[in-house]
C-alpha cells in the first residue's frame, strides 16, 4: 500500500509540475490570435554528438579514466490547416561508455516515433478530436552489467506500440497541452525466442514438461486496452534555455486496472552558440510488467521473479555539438 501511495504521489507531482512550469497565459488557457497560427508545413531536423571525458594522472583521491558519448538525431514534421493538423516526430539515441580496464557498455538506446492527428470541430473551442500513434524500441542488446552472457533486451524485445482515439486541449494554446484517450490499444512485442519463452516484459511464457522440453512456445506479443493521459509543456524559460516536459500515464482496463504505468521525461536544453549545446535530462519510469530482478530456471528457462517492478530513474548531463540540418540546407540553397 505504501508503494502504491508513493507512485500516486509521483503522478500528482508530475501533473502539478507541468502546470506550475506554464507561464500565466498558458496556465489560464489564453488563446492565441487566429492570425498567429502558421498554416502549412514546418519541419526540423538535427543531429548531435554529446561527449563526456574524465582523466586522472597521479590524482591522490583516485578515480577511473573514462570517456562516454551519445549520438542523437531528431526530426519532426508538422502540418496545419484551419481545422486540422498532423504532427510527427522521430527520436534516435545511442550512447556508449568506456572505462579504463573495462569493456564498452551501453548508456543510451532509443528508437521512438510519434504521430498525432487532430481535427477541430468548433473553432471557438480549445478542444479537438485526436488520434495518436507511438512506437518505441531499441537498437542493440541490453545487459544487466557486468553479466554480458545473457541479454535482458534486444531490438523489438521489447517494442511498444500505442494507438488511441481521444480529445486534446491546447490547439490554440502555446507551450502546453493535455490529451486524454479512453480507448488506447497497447501492444508489447517480444520478438526473441528466449525472452518470449521466459515471459519477459509481461508476455505469456512458454510451457515446459518436467524434462525442460517446450510444449508450447511463449507468446511474442501482448495486447492491452486502457486509458492514456498525456501532459506536455515546452517553452523557453530563460534566454537560450528551453524546457520540455512530457508525462504519460497508462492503465489497462482488464489487467490490474488502476495500476498506473508512468513515463515522465524532462529535458533542459541550453544553447551556448549556433552549434554548441548542453542538455540536462531526467527520465522517470514505472512499468508493472518489468521486474527489477529475475533469475532463469535452468530446466524450464522460465523467469523467476526475485524482486518485482520498481521505479526506474535515468539522469543525463551532456555537452556537445548539435547541427540543425534545416539551417545548413537553407544556407546552401539561398540565392
Task: Please outline the helices and strands.
Blueprint: H1 2-21, H2 24-27, E1 40-54, E2 66-80, E3 84-99, E4 105-119, E5 127-137, E6 159-169, E7 176-189, H3 193-198, E8 207-208, E9 214-216, E10 221-238, E11 241-252, E12 261-271, E13 276-286, E14 293-296, E15 303-307, E16 312-324, H4 325-333
Antiparallel strand pairs: 1-2, 1-16, 2-3, 3-4, 4-5, 5-6, 6-7, 7-10, 8-9, 10-11, 11-12, 12-13, 13-16, 14-15
Mean pLDDT: 83
Distance between the termini: 66 Å
| Assembly status | single chain
Main sheet record: 12 strands, antiparallel, barrel
Secondary-structure class: mainly beta
The helix content, as a percent range, equals 10-25%
Radius of gyration from CA coordinates: 22 Å
Indicate the overall shape.
flat
Tally the structural domains: 1
How many H/I helices?
4
- In total, the number of strands is 16
Unreliable spans are 18-35
Sequence of secondary-structure elements: HHEEEEEEEHEEEEEEEEEH
> Strand arrangement, largest sheet?
1-2-3-4-5-6-7-10-11-12-13-16
Strand content: over 45%
Describe, in plain words, how this protein is organized in 3D:
The protein has 335 residues and is mainly beta. It has one domain. 12% of the residues lie in helices and 53% in strands. The protein contains four helices and 16 strands. The strands form three sheets. It has a twelve-stranded antiparallel beta barrel with strand order 1-2-3-4-5-6-7-10-11-12-13-16. It is flat and about 65 Å long. It starts with a helix and ends with a helix.
